[in-house]
């Protein structure tokens, strides 16, 4: 094809040279009108004309062709070989035009001749000026509200100061006052302990815990309850999981070739530990972005912990089978930039990969400035199919060296054996046997395999070019690594190495307008079921505005002032009268504010998938609360979903749901049914749907069958002669309250009818057990069980 | 306060409903709510109610017969005499810049081609039964995609993006049109693959979960075992009915305590729907009422064709009942880097009769007019050889075909070069195919948008040209 174009060019050039002087306007005009204009009209202008400007390009006037589109000038008059137009129609270039099929040879030749001879275009009426590209490409964008500095709001005066427990309530009540709404009364104490326990642990309170709390008449009983809950490691297992949604955590690569991330669990355990230790959030962010670069003063444990934290950057979903290694690398970088934007800043920075962000002031230059930081970071070892991500040993330099040395000795021995075997008869049998014996001894003496973490390190510092339209085949100017100008200003920070450390410092500056706001809003969302900014992951122009902007800013300031302490933030929020409101319905308020934006009551919340599963196991007395580690049975980089499509992962374990492997693109069915966060994108606001598959799970799921069976047996064994107590105990365990007499009567009537039903009598099983199991199923399936008031 | 009120005015926005109550196939929940909503005079939209398309549609539903692995165009529907003539010669033009593996010289097709039907379309001897139906087909020989690996290509075919998790085409279609059967999912996928993107190939991604595809089994499960998750009753239905009556009382009592709550009301209906589904779905899957003729038509009488035949028959049964998008996956078998002769033969054998049977059956039942059947893989294969009996992935030019649902029957559109490597005429990218499928369903692809994370998304993103030449 190259040859063909070459030949045509030669022909075109020759023809031009021979006739240039003789060629009259008339000839050029004829060539243009007969050959060129019709083909431009027929094949090109539908997409590159007055109606549409694909790629920002118009081909209906000479000026437009010369000025070109996103990929630069479409043609250079007199230089067909260097003109994109002629290259594209040759079909021998990355860009193949027209897309619906190749032009005929004659048509291509006509274009080449025309470009080469200077692109004659008759002085027809002046072409109308190119319609400006969609304005967002050029015009400066207004700053979103969230880019403005965090204000220092005045604490408002309110109508009912006696309702107020802390400043949060003043902001909330002021808004309710303005809407002429009143806050719901405080929830009763049984509701409060159930709410707080599910909220901080993802488990229900035991009957004993409820009883103790109801009997605790001290004025600080509630505060002590919160402290008790915050001090338990169950807290980190609950709130760490919230963060894992934001970190798009998973134990497999997903997207295409689905390989096991056998070391991802170390990042998960790091997150749980960080929440339990109340690691300051700014430090938490710095470690995840640049833990490997932070000084550790020789503290190996600390070094490993921080290295593990950078797993955040590595564990995203990636295309490991992409034949174009450059595209693969840029896609992986893009995933990182996007995840960081969403997780820490609540921005959709990824939108600026192909064009300036259409709504937020983030340009492609900003995007590639950030992308350069990750281009300069080693996330991958290889980019050839199936690509390898980078992992780092969690061991001292000595241990690594000795493992390497041992490996080298093994290799040496193997080579000697191979050589000996090749030599064949010349090597005495005893010699070979001896070598093999030595190898086997050596292998047995191998040091324990080193633990590895998914982690990054700095690579060669490299600035990236702007990739026009997101294509690595269409490069523009190089931009220095840095941060978005609209947020960070124009003065470039001096970066060392990749610049990750400086990026982390920039994100965690106390005055950063987004970091603290985004995080306090996430925490609010996880407590209340809806954020003050409901679009928790988008603080840009297309996100929602805060319902209580002053409260958001006040909380953000307090959060930073209190050393970015998450536990302090929980205390503050949970101490408020706002948090302690009941979720009671109020017809007038519901009429004015059906979505409860103004917080006239507590949102009723459905338990998440993990909490439902954990609560079922816990109430049945079977939850295994051992902590940390991995349940993934795969070998490193082993396929978790194979070509036979069988997902080898087993979920049949009584461990907390947090520890179940998260297999991208083949999630546990129960998790799928109950709105587990799609683990390929950062997500701070899970859906909470009500679907038939959930009902089917509650009726037929294996977990429900097993646990209700066990629970029914326990109830029958514990109170063999007292059916009423059995019902009471079931209610206390599952619903954290005693049943009414009427409820007991109804339950027993159900059990009686069930156990004597002809169908229940027919199977070999025990009809009484079956009836009590059915009762347990009904209680687990009840709305009261899976909703928290 | 309105404690203990039983009749109340629901006051939920559509947004809240979409977030909290819609999902899976629990729209009955919504319908119940909407009934009272209508009584109160407020407007409410069921996300799965059948909706008017943008213009009069030709097709009401889609059956997508997906050949996972990449069937070879030059051994099936794209006859290349020069490939036979030049067997063993080098490809006389450049291979693509990016390839999945290195290939050698040209490899002639081991199968003979013949022209069939009134249309005279060429079909190889791999598809003798489909060849008899060739006058129903609209063969697209100029298909092309952008990704040369299974994962990327599957995702691009199913979602339009090989880079991000995006809603699948079935999800977009249900979002655009709703569904016509209240007791079944609007989008089912029979024996889908768990690899190469897995669930992401039928996920609703950021569209409301109500538009997520419902899998029946997966590719490792034989089609007679492929069921909706958790659909099998663990207790006899009479006992379950008793249990559900009691549960309904418990939940209604709770609702009377809480006051109106869309989600809690939705749950009550979701259990009722689940109860009915456990009856309806097995009935739908029980094919004992089909005639011996039909069973034979789909190849259920032969061991080679039984599994896929059953999938195709299920597809017809779902289509008949108004399911909007049914995907049938012939599991990952078509990837012949080697063993082309043997494996392409057995693959084609497994699907040929069932597909021909499905086309005949749809036609006989008058369903073909408004059912669009789509056949194809994630890419085609190279005319150049891997080893001496294999072909590599080729997204640059391959064949898919459409039938029924408003496409011109008995035509061939587009062409590859002389050897079948690159599409050169009538090129149809996956984006164009998506635009065309939506068009046939009465949806303008640029108008079917959903706002998410800062912008309006489409199935076709910024791409897609309607292939108007093939519209009937």
If you had to describe this structure to a student in words, what would you say it looks like?
The complex is a heterodimer of chains A (789) and B (472). The N terminus of chain A is likely disordered. Chain A is globular, with a radius of gyration of 33 Å. Chain A contains 33 helices and eight strands. In chain A, helix 9 packs antiparallel against helix 23 and helix 30 packs across helix 32. Chain A is mainly α. The longest helix of chain A has 27 residues. Chain A starts with a helix and ends with a strand. Among the domains of chain A are: 129 residues, no CATH class; 132 residues, no CATH class; 56 residues; 90 residues, no CATH class. In chain B, 33% of the residues lie in helices and 17% in strands. Chain B folds into two domains: 78 residues, no CATH class; 348 residues, Alkaline Phosphatase, subunit A, CATH 3.40.720. Chain B has 472 residues and is α/β, with parallel strands linked by helices. Chain B is built from twelve helices and 17 strands. In chain B, helix 7 runs antiparallel to helix 8. In chain B, strands 1, 4, 5, 6, 7, 8, 11, 12 and 15 form a nine-stranded mixed sheet that branches. A two-stranded antiparallel sheet of chain B has the order 2-3. At the A-B interface, helix 24, helix 26, helix 27, helix 30 and helix 32 of A face helix 1, helix 5, helix 7, helix 8 and strand 14 of B.
Helix content of chain A: 40-55%
Q: Structural class given helices, strands, pairing of chain A? A: mainly alpha
Q: Strand tally of chain A, please? A: 8
> From the alpha-carbon coordinates, what is the Rg of chain B to the nearest angstrom?
24 Å
Class of secondary structure makeup of chain B: alpha/beta
Number of helices of chain B: 12
**Main beta sheet of chain B:** 9 strands, mixed
| Termini Cα gap of chain A | 71 Å
| Unreliably modeled segments of chain A | 1-22, 125-139
| CATH domain topology of the largest domain in chain B | Alkaline Phosphatase, subunit A
Strand content of chain A: under 5%
Question: Can you write the helix and strand succession of chain B as a string?
Answer: HHEHEEHEHHEEHHHHEHEEEEEEEEHEE
Q: What kind of oligomer do you see?
A: heterodimer
Largest interface: A-B, 100 and 105 residues
> Mean pLDDT score of chain A, rounded?
89
CATH architecture grouping of the largest domain in chain B: 3-Layer(aba) Sandwich
Q: Provide the β-strand percentage band of chain B.
A: 15-25%
Mean pLDDT of chain B: 87
């Amino acid at each position: 094809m190259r040859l063909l174009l070459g030949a045509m060019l030669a022909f075109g050039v020759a023809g031009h040279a021979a006739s240039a002087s003789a060629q009259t306007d008339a000839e050029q005009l004829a060539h243009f009108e007969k050959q060129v204009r019709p083909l431009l009209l027929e094949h090109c202008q539908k997409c590159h004309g007055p109606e549409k400007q694909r790629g920002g390009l118009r081909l209906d006037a000479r000026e437009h062709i010369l000025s070109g589109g996103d990929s630069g000038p479409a043609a250079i008059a007199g230089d067909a070989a260097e003109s994109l137009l002629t290259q594209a129609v040759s079909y021998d270039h990355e860009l193949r035009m027209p897309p619906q099929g190749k032009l005929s040879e004659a048509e291509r030749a006509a274009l080449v001749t025309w470009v080469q001879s200077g692109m004659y275009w008759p002085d027809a009426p002046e072409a109308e000026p190119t319609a400006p590209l969609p304005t967002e490409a050029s015009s400066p964008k207004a700053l979103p509200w969230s880019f403005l500095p965090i204000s220092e709001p005045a604490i408002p005066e309110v109508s009912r100061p006696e309702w107020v427990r802390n400043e949060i309530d003043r902001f909330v009540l002021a808004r309710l006052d303005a809407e002429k709404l009143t806050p719901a009364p405080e929830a009763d104490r049984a509701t409060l302990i159930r709410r707080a326990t599910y909220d901080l642990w993802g488990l229900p309170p035991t009957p004993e815990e409820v009883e103790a709390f109801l009997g605790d008449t001290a004025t600080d009983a509630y505060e002590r309850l919160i402290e008790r809950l915050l001090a338990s490691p169950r807290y980190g297992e609950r709130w760490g999981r919230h963060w894992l949604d934001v970190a798009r955590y998973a134990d497999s690569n997903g997207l295409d070739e689905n390989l096991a991330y056998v070391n991802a669990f170390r990042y998960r355990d790091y997150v749980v530990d960080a929440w339990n230790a109340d690691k300051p959030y700014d430090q938490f962010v710095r470690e995840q972005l640049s833990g490997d670069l932070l000084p550790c003063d020789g503290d190996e444990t600390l070094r490993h912990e921080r290295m593990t934290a950078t797993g955040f950057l590595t564990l995203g979903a990636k295309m490991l089978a992409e034949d174009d290694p450059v595209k693969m690398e840029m896609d992986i970088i893009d995933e990182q930039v996007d995840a960081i934007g969403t997780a820490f800043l609540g921005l959709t920075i990824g939108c600026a990969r192909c064009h300036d962000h259409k709504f937020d002031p983030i340009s492609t230059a900003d995007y590639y400035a950030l992308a350069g930081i990750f281009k300069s970071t080693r996330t991958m070892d290889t980019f050839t199919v199936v690509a390898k991500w980078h992992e780092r040993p969690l061991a001292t330099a000595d241990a690594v060296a000795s493992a390497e040395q041992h490996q080298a000795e093994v290799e040496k021995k193997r080579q000697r054996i191979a050589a000996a075997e090749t030599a064949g008869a010349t090597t005495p049998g005893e010699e070979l046997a001896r070598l093999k014996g030595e190898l086997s001894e050596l292998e047995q003496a191998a040091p324990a395999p080193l633990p590895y973490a998914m982690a990054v390190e700095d690579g060669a510092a490299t600035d990236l070019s702007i990739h026009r339209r997101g294509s690595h085949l269409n490069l523009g100017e190089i931009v220095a690594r840095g941060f978005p100008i609209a947020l960070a200003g124009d003065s470039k920070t001096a970066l060392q190495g990749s610049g990750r450390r400086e990026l982390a410092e920039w994100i965690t500056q106390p005055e950063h307008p987004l970091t603290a706001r985004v995080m306090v809003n996430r925490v609010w969302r996880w407590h209340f079921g809806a954020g003050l900014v409901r679009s928790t992951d988008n603080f840009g122009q297309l996100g929602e505005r805060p319902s209580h902007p002053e409260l958001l800013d006040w909380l953000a300031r307090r959060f930073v002032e209190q050393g970015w302490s998450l536990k302090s933030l929980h205390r503050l929020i949970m101490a408020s009268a706002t948090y302690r409101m009941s979720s009671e319905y109020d017809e007038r308020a519901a009429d004015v504010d059906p979505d409860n934006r103004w917080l006239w009551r507590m949102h009723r919340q459905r338990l998440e998938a993990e909490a439902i599963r954990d609560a079922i196991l816990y109430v049945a007395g079977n939850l295994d609360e051992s902590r940390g580690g991995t349940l993934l049975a795969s070998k490193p980089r082993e396929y978790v979903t194979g070509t036979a499509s069988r997902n080898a992962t087993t979920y049949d374990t009584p461990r907390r749901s947090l520890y179940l492997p998260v297999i991208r693109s083949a999630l546990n069915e129960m998790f799928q049914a109950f709105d587990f966060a799609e683990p390929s994108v950062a997500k701070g606001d899970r859906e909470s749907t009500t679907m038939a598959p959930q009902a089917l799970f509650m009726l037929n799921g294996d977990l429900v069958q097993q646990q209700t069976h066990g629970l029914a047996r326990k109830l029958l064994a514990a109170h063999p002669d007292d059916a009423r107590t059995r019902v009471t105990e079931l209610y206390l365990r599952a619903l954290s309250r005693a049943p009414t007499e009427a409820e007991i009567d109804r339950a027993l009537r159900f059990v009686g009818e069930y156990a004597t039903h002809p169908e229940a009598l027919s199977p070999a099983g025990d009809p009484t057990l079956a009836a009590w199991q059915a009762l347990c199923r009904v209680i687990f399936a009840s709305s009261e069980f899976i909703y928290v008031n | 306060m309105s404690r203990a009120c039983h009749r109340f005015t629901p006051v939920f926005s559509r947004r809240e409903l979409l977030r909290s109550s819609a999902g899976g196939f629990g729209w009955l929940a919504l319908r119940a709510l909407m009934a009272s909503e209508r009584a109160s005079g407020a407007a409410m939209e069921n996300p799965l109610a059948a909706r008017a398309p943008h213009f009069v549609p030709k097709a009401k539903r889609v059956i997508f017969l997906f050949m996972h692995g990449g069937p070879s165009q030059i051994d099936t529907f794209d006859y290349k005499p020069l490939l036979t003539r030049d067997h063993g010669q080098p490809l006389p033009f450049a291979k693509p810049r990016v390839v999945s593996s290195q290939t050698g010289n040209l490899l002639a097709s081991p199968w003979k081609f013949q022209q069939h039907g009134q249309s005279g379309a060429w079909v190889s001897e791999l598809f003798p039964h489909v060849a008899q139906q060739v006058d129903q087909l609209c063969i697209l020989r100029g298909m092309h995609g952008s990704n040369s690996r299974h994962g990327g290509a599957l995702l691009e075919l199913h979602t339009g993006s090989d880079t991000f998790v995006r809603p699948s085409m079935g999800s977009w279609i249900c979002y655009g049109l709703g569904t016509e059967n209240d007791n079944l999912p609007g989008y089912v996928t029979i024996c889908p693959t768990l690899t190469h993107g897995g669930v992401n190939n039928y996920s609703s991604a950021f569209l409301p979960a109500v538009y997520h595809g419902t899998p029946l089994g997966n590719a490792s499960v034989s089609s007679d075992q492929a069921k909706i998750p958790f659909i099998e009753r663990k207790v006899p239905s009479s006992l379950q009915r008793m249990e559900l009556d009691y549960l309904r009382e418990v939940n209604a009592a709770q609702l009377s305590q809480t006051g109106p709550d869309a989600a809690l009301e939705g749950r009550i209906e979701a259990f009722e729907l689940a109860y009915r589904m456990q009856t309806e779905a097995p009935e739908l899957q029980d094919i004992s009422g089909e005639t011996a003729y039909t069973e034979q038509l789909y190849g259920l009488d032969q061991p080679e064709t039984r599994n896929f035949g059953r999938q195709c028959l299920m597809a017809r049964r779902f289509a008949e009942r108004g399911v909007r998008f049914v995907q049938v996956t012939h599991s990952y078998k078509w990837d012949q880097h080697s063993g082309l002769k043997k494996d392409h033969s057995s693959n084609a054998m497994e699907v040929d009769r069932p597909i021909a049977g499905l086309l005949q059956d749809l036609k006989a039942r008058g369903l073909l007019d408004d059912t669009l059947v789509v056949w194809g893989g994630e890419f085609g294969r190279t005319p150049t050889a891997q080893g001496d009996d294999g072909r590599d992935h080729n997204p640059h030019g391959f064949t898919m075909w459409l039938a029924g649902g408003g496409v011109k029957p008995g035509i061939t559109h587009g062409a590859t070069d002389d050897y079948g490597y690159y599409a050169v005429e009538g090129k149809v990218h996956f984006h164009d195919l998506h635009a065309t499928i939506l068009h046939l369903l009465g949806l303008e692809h640029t108008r079917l948008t959903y706002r998410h994370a800062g912008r309006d998304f489409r199935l076709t993103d910024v791409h897609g040209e309607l292939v108007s030449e093939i519209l009937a």
